[in-house]
Specification:
The chain has 150 residues and is an alpha+beta fold. It has five helices and three strands; from the N terminus they run E-E-E-H-H-H-H-H. It has a three-stranded antiparallel beta sheet, covered by helices on one side. The longest helix has 16 residues. The model has no long low-confidence stretch (mean pLDDT 82).
Length: 150
């Protein structure tokens, strides 16, 4: 079922790091709001391949670019952000049943962990840094001696 969101929403198929992805987005003034992005399913990949094959057979003069806005310097500045973000290796302890559940779906359980954590992170408001409370010795400069008798 489609919903009316009060804005124009578009679906775009594209290549990201050699993988076909589906991106839902909405134009906003001079910007675009990305709503979601996911790996394309087989049907979508096949559709994109046939479209690309058709485009490959066309001559440049036959392609209609009239509905594509010109890309300014501002767009190209934003387009240089690398994706996906760099990964960092770590050791994590998980409950045995949680790990079994993640592994039950087959290969790629670590990627699933990352996707679950990213979805949880992106669903939260951006946290503001909490200022660290200064200890007494940081304020007045004299550090207490833990061995001193009181």
């Amino acid at each position: 079922m489609r919903h009316l969101y009060g804005e124009e929403r578009l679906i775009t198929l594209g290549l990201l790091a050699g993988r076909v992805v589906v991106i839902a987005h909405a134009p906003r003034d001079d910007d675009t709001r990305i709503i979601s992005m996911r790996k394309a399913n087989r049907r979508e990949q096949k559709s994109m391949k046939s479209d690309l094959d058709r485009l490959d057979r066309m001559k440049d003069a036959e392609i209609d670019y009239s509905d594509i806005p010109a890309l300014g310097k501002e767009f190209l500045k934003k387009a240089t952000v690398p994706w996906p973000p760099a990964k960092q290796q770590l050791t994590i302890r998980l409950d045995k049943d949680v790990l079994a559940w993640l592994r039950a779906a087959g290969r790629g359980y670590q990627t699933r962990i990352n996707h679950i954590l990213r979805a949880a992170m992106e669903s939260q408001p951006t946290p503001r840094p909490v200022p660290r409370r200064k200890r007494d010795h940081e304020i007045n400069g004299n550090r207490p001696n833990p061995r001193a008798k009181q």
